[in-house]
């Protein structure tokens, strides 16, 4: 598990991932957990994980930066195989490219969409605020799972 408890929202995201694992994969064992927010941290932590747990087959990451680094660490360690998977949140271009290239990243979750889509949504709220319209105080973002099966829709359209 590559988490980042230094930021409250990412601590909650990490806890949610762990809760989801326990619920959906009750036989899974979390053998290592460390903080990684960017590719450099992701690769370093993954190399350490794989040295201590060479039979490990799954890495969950709270963000795309750690996931991209984990992907590089898996490749460098010669562990890239059909039964190894990295699962993350953010859907960065690098994550989606790794899916297209059939690397270790198997799924990432977009929140609302890629940056142009998020900018469109935020701009819409700003327009409403400027017009004196009420906007919600709590905004729920759409969660979009991206896998090899639908990655072309998101990597090409930039939604």
TrEMBL record:
Listed GO CC annotations: cell envelope
Localization: Cell envelope
Principal localisation: other
Pfam families: Peripla_BP_4 (PF13407)
Domain of life of the source: Bacteria
Keywords per UniProt: Signal
InterPro entries documented for this protein: Peripla_BP_I, SBP_2_dom
Gene Ontology terms for molecular function: carbohydrate binding
Domain Periplasmic binding protein residue range list: 12-133
The family this protein is said to belong to: Belongs to the bacterial solute-binding protein 2 family.
Protein's name according to its UniProt entry: Substrate-binding domain-containing protein
Organism: Iocasia fonsfrigidae
